[in-house]
Amino acid sequence: MANPGKPAEVKRRLGAKGYQSAPKPETLVLPMVADVPEPPRALGDAGLELWHRTWLRGYSWLAVHTDIHLLVITCEQMDERIILRDLVLADPFAWRERAALRELEKSIRSNLSLLGFTPTDRMKLGVAEIKAETKMEALRRRQAEREAEKVIVVEQPDS
To answer: Cα–chain-centroid distance for residue 41?
Structure first.
């Protein structure tokens, strides 16, 4: 049996012809949002909560002029979700409403993904999260602190 082929990532690292990475396009830096903008349309409680939470968490990558429309739609969907959920909980045989609720939830999830609110989408956007110190980093930090605290005491003989 012949040797299996190498993955494209390996060929790219080795510099094989045809696998060189394309030059990276220039990154456009968008101005960060200073304050939470007012929603352009009236929203219900759930939609307003999502509106504020989204702008507070995504201030570094959301653009006021372009992302605002998708976010308003998503917030309105969240308000609709509350109404549909109440209908489904009130009538266990409301299968049409239950199906509509599941479709609406898929749409909300998709829109939040488009706005960069999943780990995968944040990675694609190049937005890094500050991660907590790992156990190994904490161990190394404590070891360095202990080493810094060690004081060598040299006794001098009495003369």
So the answer is: 26
CA–CA dist 107, 129 (Å, integer): 25
pLDDT by residue for the chain (159 residues), tens digit each? Answer: 578 887 777 777 777 777 666 656 565 566 677 788 888 899 999 999 999 999 888 887 888 888 899 999 999 999 999 999 999 999 989 999 999 999 999 999 999 999 988 888 887 777 765 566 678 888 888 888 888 877 555 566 765
Please state, in angstroms and rounded to a whole number, the distance separating the CA atoms of residues 70 and 110.
Answer: 11
The tally of CA atoms less than 13 A away on the side-chain side of residue 124 is 9
Task: Count the alpha carbons within 13 Å of 30 in the hemisphere toward its beta carbon.
Answer: 15
CB neighbours (10 Å) of residue 78? 23
- Would you tell me how many other CB atoms lie within 10 Å of the CB of residue 47? 23
Q: Please choose, from the candidates 119, 108, 122, 120, the residue with its C-alpha nearest in 3D space to the C-alpha of residue 61.
A: 122
Q: How many whole angstroms from its chain centre is CA 64?
A: 18
Tally: H helices and E strands in the chain: 6, 0
